[in-house]
Design a protein that fits this description.
Blueprint lengths: L3 H4 L17 H25 L10 H6 L6 H20 L3 E4 L10 E4 L1 H17 L5 H5 L2 H25 L10 H7 L6 E2 L2 E2 H29 L4 H19 L8 H4 L5 H14 L2 H8 L6 H30 L12 E3 L5 E3 L3 H4 L3 H15 L10 H25 L1 H9 L10
Antiparallel strand pairs: 1-2, 3-4, 5-6
The protein binds NADPH dihydro-nicotinamide-adenine-dinucleotide phosphate.
């Protein structure tokens, strides 16, 4: 296998140096390189060691306990899990598709086999649990060491990718500042032939590990107490549905900024290995420590909130995709209202895209809120997902707005006039 990124000629566009102006420049990037792991360790310690409280370290021992030492057992688990996914990526069947057009004019090919790899890996996990070969509680006893190891792997990968980009010279967007480039990355699509490392770690490893923890946490509750609390059921069903849906629509990832625009640096190595699997399962981690039974009206209410959010999220994204493929396709059974633009592409004014400019974000936030509300109101820690996600999507909408204004000029102003709300119809 050859390293495509290191053998292909690059255009002058790809050789461009960029100013270090995202996330507060080099200082901001350095701060985030430290803050992202600290937040993840702090949240793990809050749930695992401090009863879900917002604790303040009062001794050196408390501070050091926040970063558990790696163990051989955890090393074998993480190594085995990553090795399994490498094998599944190589052997599972999947359609080979072309990705989006990159800034250097290239289109890369991707093998989409995330769904089959996810089903097999979760199947293996369930078989190990069902036959008693593995106990969920013994895996979760290693959650702290696993977090430390995953963080170390994220650092090692970021160093590797930084060197990968540097080895080729300033070939893909880099600023020349070490701290900034380490965080933001210096290489866009490190890959060996069809094996695209950024896609693999985001999809198979990031979302797949989230799925594995979403199975292990209720299994551990079952082992410990002989039953699964209703709140744990609600969060598990909703999250496994969301993750499976991600794999069913895995090709959507190919048009997202992570894949087509962001270089692969520490921001993403940490996000895929640590942030997604460990922080997104905080609700279940909390519920394992504090089993919660919900009244029937709350269960129904949360499922309705989650699946209504899902319909808004998925249907709005599909509406836009269908519209991009066929601008005359009916929307909600009627011919679409369309704004033709000078740029050539049109903007959809019907369906979800006529109610607000990013109802897809609203759907995502409704699901996030349902998962958090299932944990009750005794602790703010399981609300982390919503607390971080809402500002992230509000900021993302503003960045997309600026990008669209640049792309569409006056036509975007006209779209905003006809669809005045940003995320929530009639409200915001
Ligand atoms: P969108 O899917 O909303 O795409 C925005 C782009 O769509 C615009 O740049 C524009 O591009 C096009 N567009 C905007 N308005 C219209 C219109 N009226 N008609 C047709 N095209 C339009 O953005 P994201 O990639 O940010 O989000 C995708 C999904 O991923 C969302 O559901 C989001 O919630 C989710 N997400 C989840 C995250 C997570 O951590 N769970 C993080 C980030 C996103 P153009 O015109 O050039 O086609």
């Amino acid at each position: 296998m050859t390293s495509q990124s290191s053998t292909q000629p690059l255009s002058t566009e790809a050789a461009e140096r960029v100013p270090a102006d995202h996330f507060g420049g080099p200082i901001g990037a350095l701060a985030l390189t430290i803050v992202m792991p600290v937040v993840s360790f702090y949240l793990w310690a809050s749930v695992s060691l401090h009863d879900g409280s917002l604790w303040v370290p009062t001794s050196l021992a408390e501070l050091t306990a926040m970063v558990p030492a790696p163990t051989w057992r955890a090393t074998a688990m993480l190594g085995g899990w990553l090795a399994l996914h490498v094998v599944l990526q190589l052997v599972c069947p999947g359609k080979v598709v072309e990705g989006a057009l990159l800034p250097n004019g290239e289109r890369l090919k991707y093998k989409l086999n995330g769904l089959s790899a996810f089903v097999v890996s979760i199947g293996v996990l369930l078989a190990l649990l069902a036959t008693g070969t593995l106990s969920a509680s013994s895996v979760l006893a290693e959650l702290g060491p696993l977090l430390t190891l995953a963080t170390l792997v994220a650092v090692a990968l970021a160093v590797w990718f930084y060197a990968w980009g540097r080895q080729r010279g300033p070939l893909e967007r880099s600023s020349g500042n070490v701290a900034y480039d380490f965080y933001m990355g210096t290489v866009l699509n490190p890959r060996f032939g069809l094996f695209d490392l950024k896609f693999f770690f985001e999809s198979h490893v990031g979302m797949g590990s989230w799925g594995a923890l979403a199975v292990l946490l209720p299994a551990a509750e079952l082992e410990r107490t002989g039953s699964i609390s209703s709140a744990m059921w609600v969060v598990t069903i909703c999250q496994l549905f969301y993750i499976t849906d991600f794999f069913v629509f895995e090709s959507n990832l190919l048009s997202m900024l992570d894949i087509i625009y962001e270089n692969y640096g520490f921001m993403l190595t940490h996000a895929f290995l640590v942030w997604i699997p460990f922080n997104f399962t905080l609700q279940q981690q909390y519920l394992l420590a504090e089993p919660t039974d919900l009244p029937i009206w709350a269960i129904v209410g949360l499922l309705v909130l989650n699946f209504t959010g899902y319909v808004v999220f998925r249907d709005s994204n599909l509406q836009k995709q269908r519209f991009r493929r066929d601008p005359s396709a009916k929307v909600w059974g009627k011919p679409p209202k369309v704004l033709k633009t000078k740029r050539g592409t049109s903007l959809l004014l019907s369906g979800w895209w006529g109610l607000a400019r990013h109802t897809n974000y609203m759907g995502d936030l409704m699901m996030a809120l349902a998962w958090c509300l299932a944990c009750g109101f005794a602790s703010v820690v399981p609300y982390f997902y919503f607390i971080y996600f809402a500002p992230l999507l509000i900021n993302r909408e503003r960045r997309d707005h600026a990008l669209c204004k640049e792309k569409y000029g006056d036509d975007w102003d006209e779209y905003c006039r006809r669809v005045p709300h940003r995320i929530v119809p009639f409200v915001y």
